[in-house]
């Protein structure tokens, strides 16, 4: 899976200066709307918050992966934010989050596109060296180069 094909420069936010999880989710969804992948931000946000309410998407290691499947999504896409300061995400490990990947998938998409994306990212995040490199990226070019290896 080529993760970088799902990224648009408009959906890479480095750094993103927000104070909480909801502001981060709103900014990332807005970036996906600006890129054209999300056509109905309100509907997509509803799906994101519904998913977040079932359990935190803060997976640990300082990273969150909020995701949603919605009729407000025109095409599968990925957004990324590296936060100016770590924020609370009620993560599984109790630690604040320094970066987030947001996955957007159309509601009518064949079953498991978001799971494939989620699995690809999660596998890389297990690697200490990859996480260190991810949290050190300073621009979209560095991020795309790093993710190109997935």
UniProtKB/TrEMBL annotation:
Residue ranges the record marks as coiled coil: none
Domain of life: Bacteria
Domain PTS EIIA type-2, first and last residues per copy: 5-150
GO MF assignments: protein-N(PI)-phosphohistidine-sugar phosphotransferase activity
GO cellular component term, pick one: cytoplasm
Alphabetized SUPFAM superfamilies for the sequence: Phoshotransferase/anion transport protein
GO biological process: phosphoenolpyruvate-dependent sugar phosphotransferase system
Protein name per UniProt: PTS fructose transporter subunit IIA
């Amino acid at each position: 899976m080529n993760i970088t094909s799902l990224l648009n420069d408009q959906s890479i936010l480095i750094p993103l200066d927000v104070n909480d999880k909801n502001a981060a989710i709103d900014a990332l969804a807005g970036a996906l709307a600006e890129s054209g992948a999300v056509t109905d931000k309100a509907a997509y946000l509803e799906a994101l918050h519904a998913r977040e309410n079932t359990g935190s998407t803060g997976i640990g290691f300082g990273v969150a992966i909020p995701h949603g499947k919605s009729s407000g999504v025109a095409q599968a896409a990925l957004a990324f934010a590296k936060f100016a300061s770590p924020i609370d995400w009620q993560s599984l490990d109790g630690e604040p989050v320094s970066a987030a990947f947001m996955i957007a998938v159309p509601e009518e998409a064949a079953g498991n596109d978001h799971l494939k994306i989620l699995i690809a990212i999660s596998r890389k995040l297990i690697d200490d060296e990859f996480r260190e490199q991810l949290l050190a990226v300073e621009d979209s070019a560095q991020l795309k180069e790093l993710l190109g290896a997935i």
